[in-house]
Design brief:
The chain is mainly α. It has 1 helix and no strands. It is rod-shaped.
Length: about 150
């Protein structure tokens, strides 16, 4: 038996070349089977995330734009509602003044009619009383004078 003493860690012989070729084949196969599909999946995922981020930014911009448009429309509606309220108030005031004027005219007409009726009734009462006054006056004078007139 022969004892071989070597002090080197790696000895270069035919097994080294076989292991090197085997390692290179392994790297090639791993690159084809695992690394390339994994890298393509990672790049697709990055693109998808980038598209989502763009969509999110676009959505935020649309949201801001729609919010501003909503605020403008809300301001317009409030302004139009205020105009309508003022118009309705003006119409109400105008209608109230018309009703008040009509009522005043009716009151004036009723007063005139009532005054006319009262005057007619007074005239009739005076005519009726005139005849009675003469009769009562004659009676009183006869009693006071104690004689017939």
């Amino acid at each position: 038996m022969e004892i071989i003493a070597t002090t080197s860690l790696i000895s270069i012989n035919e097994t080294f070349f076989v292991q090197l070729v085997s390692f290179l084949i392994f790297l090639y196969v791993m690159n084809r089977i695992m690394f390339r599909p994994l890298l393509s999946t990672i790049s697709q995922r990055k693109e998808l995330i980038s598209d989502f981020q763009k969509d999110i930014l676009s959505g935020k911009e649309d949201l801001v734009r729609i919010g501003k448009a909503f605020d403008r429309e809300q301001a317009k509606v409030i302004q139009e509602a205020h105009k309508v309220v003022l118009s309705i108030e003006a119409d109400g005031d105008h209608r109230a003044s018309e009703i008040l004027e009509e009522t005043r005219q009716q009151i004036s007409e009723l007063r005139h009619e009532t005054e006319t009726r009262v005057k007619d009734q007074l005239r009739q009462a005076r005519m009726e009383l005139a005849g009675e006054v003469e009769a009562i006056t004659l009676t009183i004078m006869e009693k006071v004078l104690h004689r017939r007139l």
